[in-house]
C-alpha cells in the first residue's frame, strides 16, 4: 500500500512544473494532518517548495537560472480554488498581461468576491482585494482583464497606440466577448470596445 506522501508525490509529478497548490488539493488522499506532514517531508526533501504558509509549488527549473519564481496567476488560482473564490487580475498587472505596459508592479492585485488577503511570496506581494459583484461579473474573461487594465490606465492614457496593441492581441472571439460584456463597462470603456471591433 502506498503512503500518503507517495500518492501526493505521484499526483504532483503528473502535473507540469510550475503547479501551485495547497493542502486542499490532496485532502481526498488523507486527513489534513497527514497531508500537512507529507507536504512537509516533500519540502524537506526538495521535491516541492513552500511559497507561503499553506501554499506550495512544484518549481519550474531553468538550466542556467535554477528554480524560477512561481507564476502569480497560478498562486492566485490556487488560493481561489482552495477558498471557492472568483478572481480577476486588476491594476498594473492587468495592463501588463495585455502588453499595455512593461511595468511589473511591486504588488500584484487580484479582485475577488472573497475576503481581503495579502500573501507575501519572496519579494512579491499578491493581494486579493474584495470588490463589487459588478466588477466580478466578467472575472476570468478577457473583457474583465481589458476593463481592469483601462480603469488602471485611465481615459486619458488609452490612445490609438493602446487600441492598436489590443487590436493585434485580441482574437475575433475575444472581441465578440467584449461586446457581450459591454453592459459591465463604463461609458468611455464601452466606446473603446466598439472601436476595437473596427
Mean pLDDT comes to: 93
Question: Regions with pLDDT < 50 over 5+ consecutive residues?
Answer: none
Radius of gyration: 19 Å
> Proportion of β residues?
15-25%
Number of strands: 9
Main-sheet strand order equals 6-7-9-8
| Largest beta-sheet characterization | 4 strands, mixed
- What class would the helix/strand composition place it in? alpha+beta
Sum up the overall morphology in one term.
Answer: elongated
| SSE string, helices as H and strands as E | HEHEEEEHEHEEEHHHHH
Count of helical segments? 9
The helicity comes to 40-55%
N-to-C CA distance: 62 Å
Number of structural domains: 2
Walkthrough of the structure:
There is one protein chain. With 198 residues, the chain is an alpha+beta fold. It has two domains: 4-67, Arc Repressor Mutant, subunit A; 72-195, no CATH class. Helix content is 44%, strand content 17%. It has nine helices and nine strands. It has helices at residues 4-14, 32-44, 72-83, 91-97, 133-136, 142-153, 160-169, 172-180, 187-195, and strands at residues 20-21, 49-52, 55-57, 61-62, 66-67, 87-89, 107-112, 117-121, 124-130. Strands 6-7-9-8 form a four-stranded mixed β-sheet. The chain has a three-stranded antiparallel β-sheet with strand order 1-3-2, covered by helices on one side. Strand 8 and strand 9 form a beta hairpin. Helix 1 crosses helix 2. The longest helix has 13 residues, at 32-44. The termini are far apart. The model has no long low-confidence stretch (mean pLDDT 93).
